[in-house]
Amino acid sequence: MQSTIESIHYGKPILGLPFFYDQFTNVDHIKKQGLGLALNYHDMTSDELKDTILQLLTEKRFEVTARVTGARYRDQPMKPLETAVWWTHYVLRHKGAPHMRVAGRKLNFFTHHSLDVLGTCL
């Protein structure tokens, strides 16, 4: 996911080669958004790889979509470091910010893991 975010940040089209887990979903999303293309690692040929790379480099729609998406991604009120500093100060000002803590952390083991619901259903 980090390389996807980096590509979006810099407005570059993506060639996805998913191998496992969430990569398939991420690459499908990239294709649907028009940010890039995907190849199946197990079935691809050298010609398909070359043709797909050339398609990404020559078809303007990928470049335009990537640049527009990148511009939207970078349109933030603060830089990431400034945001991190602001939230650190916020937590310090509010003495640990207990009002923002997840309520689920106080649940007992059975409720937290929904064993009570599972037991009722069984």
Structure, described:
The protein has helices at residues 2-9, 23-33, 46-58, 60-74, 80-93, 109-112, 115-121, and strands at residues 14-16, 36-38. 9% of the residues are buried. The radius of gyration is 22 Å and the shape is flat. The chain is built from 7 helices and 2 strands. It folds into 2 domains: 2-74, Glycogen Phosphorylase B (Rossmann fold, 3-Layer(aba) Sandwich), CATH 3.40.50.2000; 80-121, no CATH class. The protein has a two-stranded parallel sheet. With 122 residues, the chain is mostly helical. The mean pLDDT is 93.
Sum up the structure in keywords.
7 helices, 2 domains, UDP-glycosyltransferase activity, 122 residues, flat, mainly alpha, two-stranded parallel ribbon, transferase, 5% strand
Cα-atom radius of gyration: 22 Å
Side by side, the strands of the main sheet go: 1-2
Q: Helix segment count?
A: 7
Amino-to-carboxy terminus distance = 38 Å
**How many structural domains does the protein architecture include?**
2
Morphology: flat
CATH H level, superfamily name of the largest domain = Glycogen Phosphorylase B
Q: Which fold name is given in CATH as the topology of the largest domain?
A: Rossmann fold
Instruction: Report the β-strand fraction as a percent range.
Output: under 5%
Q: What profile does the largest beta sheet have?
A: 2 strands, parallel
